[in-house]
Amino acid sequence: MGRWMEALNKKEEVVFEMAPNFLIYCSKHLPKNIRNEFPILLNLDLNSNDWIDELQTFKSDRISELKNEIERVRRILNNEEFTLNLNREKILKFWTTKEYDLKNINDDINSLKSFFTKSIEQDLEIKIYL
C-alpha cells in the first residue's frame, strides 16, 4: 500500500484519504532540543516503536493533539511563535529545496489541518500506514 492515511467511519468505510509524508518526516527535521514537545509527531517517525504492523490508529482525542502539534510547527516555521534556542532558518534549510519551499510546507500543513478537522467533526478514526 505504501505510506497512506485514511479517515474511516464506524462501519470502517474510508471517508477520505491522503498521503501522510509530511507527518512521517516532520520530527526528523525538528531540532533535538524541542522534539519531546511533539510526542505524537515523534511517534510517527519511521523508526518509532509505535508502529504496529506498519500501522498507527488515532481517535478524536489524539487527532486533536496531532492537529495542535502540526499547528505549532507551522507557527514556529512562520515566525509566529518564539522558541528559545531555535534557529528557524536552520530548520527551513533542512526542510526546503528549490522545488519545496515554505509555501509548500504551509500548503501541506493546511491540507493536514483540514483532514484532521473534518475527522474530528465527523468522529472518524484515522489510520496511518507505512
Compact description:
The protein is of the alpha+beta class and 130 residues long. The chain contains five helices and four strands, in the order E-E-H-H-E-H-H-H-E.
Write the layout of secondary structure elements.
Layout: E1 4-8, E2 14-18, H1 21-26, H2 39-43, E3 55-58, H3 60-77, H4 88-95, H5 102-121, E4 125-129
Antiparallel strand pairs: 1-2, 1-4, 3-4
List keywords for this structure.
alpha+beta; 5 helices; single chain; globular; 130 residues; four-stranded antiparallel β-sheet
Describe the structure.
The chain is an alpha+beta fold and 130 residues long. It has five helices and four strands. A four-stranded antiparallel β-sheet has the order 2-1-4-3. Strand 1 and strand 2 form a beta hairpin. Helix 3 runs antiparallel to helix 5. The radius of gyration is 15 Å and the shape is globular. The relative contact order is 0.24.
| Rough outline | globular
Order of helices and strands: EEHHEHHHE
Mean pLDDT, as a whole number? 93
* Largest sheet, spatial ordering of strands: 2-1-4-3
- Please identify the structural class as seen in this structure: alpha+beta
β-strand percent reads 5-15%
C-alpha end-to-end distance: 8 Å
